[in-house]
Amino acid sequence: AEFFKHKVAGSIIVLVCWSSLDEVNYTKQFSFHGAKVTFSCNASVLDKSSDYHSQGVIYIQQEQHSILDKIKKEHFMHRYKWLLLDDNIPDIISKFRYDADITMLREETDYNTSSFDNATSIQLYDTRRVTFNDVYVHPRDGVSLHEWAYWSHKSGFQVTKGWERIKRRRDVNKYPFRTVVPMGHYSKNTYGGTYTEYLVDPTVHDAILQCGYGAAVLLIEAVNATEVLLPVKNWVSFTENSSIIVKLSSESAELSAGVLRILRKRTDYVDYIMPLWLFSAGFTYLADRESSSNMYVEPFTPSVWWSCLGVGLILALALRVTSMRQKEKDGAYIAVIATWLQQDSDGVPEGMAGRWTFTVLSVCSMLVHAYYTSAIVSALMSTGRGGPKTLRELGDSRYAIASESHDFIKGMIFGVKTNWTDLEYLKRKKMTSRFYMDIKEGVKLIQEGNTAYHSEYHQIYHYLNILSDDDICKMQTIDTIPEKMAWMPTSRRGEWTEILRVAGAWIYETGLAQRLLLRIKEHPPPCRAAMLAERVTFWDVAPLLALTTFGVVASLALLCLEIFVAKYLAR
């Protein structure tokens, strides 16, 4: 019972052919330790176990019964925690899965399998020590036993070589891993080398494929396997033999270098072991600029506008207080407004304090005007673009459409009928016989300004260097596949799935995945005007406000000094 608690098995199935009385006696022993036990002489009982919990299984060898030969291979996956009570390793174990979690129980006292004919003979409480041996099943090297834990009256259940077991499972000892690699954009006509050279060539711009292949290499190295490449034509086909999903689901391959998004239909065929790539696709086109009704207000945040109003009122009051003549006092507010609007003003005070206040006002208005004009010019350069925002609007627009020729684009978007009404509307109105074309040709059409070109966004970034800065700022996109994480797939419930998941977690922990992405991932060319188009916030103008406040205080101090000097001279 302690063994299964360590394995976190919620229930236990005992495969043995005993009488009802023997089953009751054995059940009492497990019930005493809080374990739930089911007895069966039929291996089909394993089909009824839950797919979401670990299942404990005890197999007791009996000469007249051979239940082990009738058990399905899938019942030896890692979710089933097996405990074998037998003198020898059954020959059939060599045909089981690599991830099989099998433990053989051995007592230090001698016994033979004939002693397991009834439950009363299996009393381990009187033995001095019971050893639990891990059964390591390798598809090429065969079966081996390794001591893992022991049980005794004095110390109970103790794991002595748990780390050794983990290291043993993580090392597949150069076993060949068949890796499915989609052809991507490779062609002997366009690339002058082999496909293997194409996958590692840094001058090739096929980032998704190269990133997936790089991650597959890291996974293979992490488990000490060897690489066997299986090139295929398609990524997502469910029917053609030369596709990632078909190869993995039929267990013709252990790993894929092509990343896939998690979709409900695919989860019936593959498992996902490692998140890798943010995938998105859509149309790219050059839009016309259009002005907006509130573009004159947007450069400043509301707090900045209120700050300008407050500073203007304070300066107007300061200018009125420091004015010497009544005419200057009456025109103080108009002088402030005219100065802030960068208009000429004849309301310059005569006194020293008034002139200083007017100077502070002029400097403040000049700096605010500089903030405002630079912000609004860059905003006009980078925002306010017109053009369609949805697929239906694109269908009704002046733009023609074209697309990259890729099997996932054909097989999921344009080559099949979908239940997306806007997409079907666009296809009916705009698709032509020359719809599919090369990326370089597609970018040239984008540059002309009359075509929206469809591709995976990251695939097109490198080719956008022919666009001018003005064109880059006009560039707009319409998504057909919004940004979503793509994962490394493997065979569904395959015998290597768990160790590959562990290896994937290790690759992320050590930072190797981030380094791979930084080396391969490209970024869209920046709109230089947009880099200056940030709104002016309160903290941006805080130094200006502090300087203006200091100037106002200084002008009041000068006013006091001026009054004192005037009174002194009047004596």
TrEMBL record:
SUPFAM superfamilies: Periplasmic binding protein-like II. PANTHER family: IONOTROPIC RECEPTOR 20A-RELATED, IONOTROPIC RECEPTOR 31A, ISOFORM C-RELATED. One of its GO terms (cellular component) is plasma membrane. This is Ionotropic receptor 31a. The chain crosses the membrane at residues 269-287, 299-319, 541-565. It comes from the Eukaryota. The keyword Transmembrane applies. It is found in: Cell membrane. InterPro entries: Insect_Ionotropic_Sensory_Rcpt. Keywords: Cell membrane, Glycoprotein, Membrane, Receptor, Transmembrane, Transmembrane helix. It is a multi-pass membrane protein.
